[in-house]
Amino acid sequence: MATFLYKLGRLAFRRRHFVALIWIALLTLAGVGAASAPAAGTTSFSIPGTEAQKAFDLLEQRFPGMSADGATARVVFKAPAGQSMNDAANKATVEKTVAELRSGSEVVSVADPYTGNAVSKDGTVAYASVKYKVSGMELKDSSRDALEEAGDHAQDAGLTVEIGGDALQATPHTGATEIIGIGIAAVVLVITFGSLIAAGLPLLTAIIGVGIGVATITALASALDLGSTTSTLALMIGLAVGIDYALFIVSRYRAELAEGRDREEAAGRATGTAGSAVVFAGLTVVIALAGLAVVNIPMLTKMGIAAAGTVAIAVLIALTMIPALLGYAGKRILPAGAKSKMLGGNKAGKAEKPNMGTRWASFVVRRPIAVLVLGVVGLGAVAVPAASLELGLPDDGSQPTSTTQRRAYDTLSEGFGPGFNGPLMIVVDAKNSKDADAAFTQVGDEIKKLKDVTTVTPAAPNKEGDTATITVIPGSKPSSVKTEDLVHAIRDKGAEIKADTDATVLVTGVTAMNIDVSQKLNDALIPYLILVVGLAFLLLIVVFRSILVPLKAALGFLLSVMAALGAVVAVFQWGWLAGLLGVEETGPVMSMMPIFMVGVVFGLAMDYEVFLVTRMREAYVHGEAPSQAVVTGFKHGARVVSAAAVIMMAVFAGFIGSSESMIKMIGFGLAIAVFFDAFVVRMAIVPAVLALLGKRAWWLPKWLDRALPNVDVEGEGLRTDADRAARDKELVGA
After folding, report:
1. DSSP code at position 119
2. Three-state SS sequence of 196-225
């Protein structure tokens, strides 16, 4: 592989005009496609194989005019102190508002509070339910404006009015912190390279790669049913890895220049060596992201594949456009150790004292047990909160208290009880039952006997009379354990009812859907870990030609991801430092977070493993002692890996400013995971373990060594006789 990439790098360096033209053309094509594509709607959230989804599909068949996937809104009215919603003036205001809401062109129905039993027992709160023909993201602005204006008119009449539901759903924004993250990345690159030109290349190529990826996602969003979160994730990961991959190749290019090679040769060798590491690091990220498909949740699958595609683009750009831009930069890219005059540099080639990476690695090699114990115990302590992990999906109750959606949620809880915001919809399929009406009645009667049930509405049959819906209001809030137990109890009771009446009882609704999602994700976590870690383990065996090094990499990843989950629980569930990070409301951790973090963090963790340990492997293969190879790997790789980690942390942390709670949580989780993995696992635990293992770290059975393909990540095939003679002389001198 190193030889092929070496030739590719030299070709891109010589044919830089052609390479640059291709990428600019692709960026333009993707941009035009994004600009001309129809606006994407909201992502359809389906969970194949779950009971909640089966019930939802049955509703689509048996209640065709129901618009089950249409947007909903709850206009919540609260009477002034000392008044009642049943007062004539307040009642007239509500009825006027209901009539105004019904005039909307996209409105299917509006339930009057006074005819639909939607007034609280104490008379202080009432609500009107609005149903729309289209989903929340597809609603016209005029429909949203009409909804808000109707609420304003009722507010002007003296009532307190809040609006909940997904009809006011807005596209999330990331805020200025994303730009700050890119700014920090630029500063780190300038410090790392000591050159504005060299620092600008990774930023430029990363932006082009992310531009192509995100524009392509936008162009295909409507056709492939991709939501806004998909492009945000692709932007987040694509930008981080795009900068890092380019950083490694540019850094290796400057090191080759420092050894006296001409620029075209240096570009080829940098692409052949660092580029090989980029390919394998990129493959681990792609495997981890694409592997999310095993969960069988379409939204998660699309997010993973879209982000994996953006990572693949970042790899291709690093291998081709970076060498081309190095050709354009010419002598403005200085050898390693040299700084531009603008940044106070003088000239390269002066002998320097050992860098920080060398000093740190030497310390770890001398005291490996102390470093190893301290690193493992420290991460273990941070991981302790993960034992209290509670999973759920965000609803209006997780919104900031400053939003009307959250205030509507709280007002309904006050007036109707905490379970009112999480109603359960029971779908009774009595098509095979001899007496459908009797089956409907029996279902309602049996559910009323269960614990934590506040209200059970009468069955509402369809026109054919073979299917009915029953609404159940729990006594506890949607995210509580009691509500989850109630869902399971209804399902257990449904099995008994089917035996008696041949009627099938299905539980659905947002709350039941959330419970099913959490269960499905929990069930998929172990198979996903086996698939992703197994494939990456095999890949790393090929790269490092070792058994213990990939095993150590996988165990180190488990430490960092558990510590990161512990930090997420502490901040987003317990509320530690929540105010500092702009987390206005604590609650259960998003159900997708553990498996998503496992996938993304594993891929990124293997990036640092590949980039750092390949330099150690390279030194060991070329004759250095195992402990000295660790020091040499840190001498050449620690500064660059540290810079890459800081950049990735800055990019991810930039998304903490998002208005979307899921994006905020993902940004924080990935940023802290990169910190733990890069600076604790890869920079401390990895060298300590390698120092303790010595030569055994690079052991590989002879039969396996013969069976594995030789990918030559170390670039041995690129070495000339002069290179080998110089290396032998250096080893003899050492």
Report:
1. B
2. HHHHHHHHHHHHHHHHHHHHHHHHHHHHHC
